[in-house]
Predict the structure of Dihydrofolate reductase.
Amino acid sequence: MITIIAAAAENNALGKDNDLVWHLPDDFKRFKQLTTGHFIIMGRKTFESFPKPLPNRTHVVITRQTDYNPDGCIVVNSMEKALELAKDDPQPFIIGGGEIYKLGLPYCNKIELTRVHASFDADTFFPEIEEGKWTLIQSTHHPKDDKHKYDFTYLTYSRK
């Protein structure tokens, strides 16, 4: 099962200037819990937004740059090559950014989406989820609180 995992605003905003536009600690915890022990597939810009590689995950970075070779990562030039590398993982995760989500959407069976209940000025967006192709199988609301400036909902979709 190939899973896309993302946090996107009501207007599908993902981020701006290669950074998130919100801080949701509980969403970070959930991301860590779900992805630990798995392959995580991402674009170069997403990888470069991390201070260092994330622990206990196999990083696969998709880039067109032929001389890109960061420590602790496998570098490929296509989604197909990334998925081939991750074929023995029962649940590899596609973790972004916007272009990588678009490339990965046709291959994935599941979407773990944190819908942030606000709209943001952004330069990177999550693709539209086509209702006819996906079924919402779980929804868990998280109200804003002293650690979370925005309400958000964990949404799990399964391909029809």
Q: What stands out?
A: The chain has a mean pLDDT of 96. The longest strand covers residues 134-142.
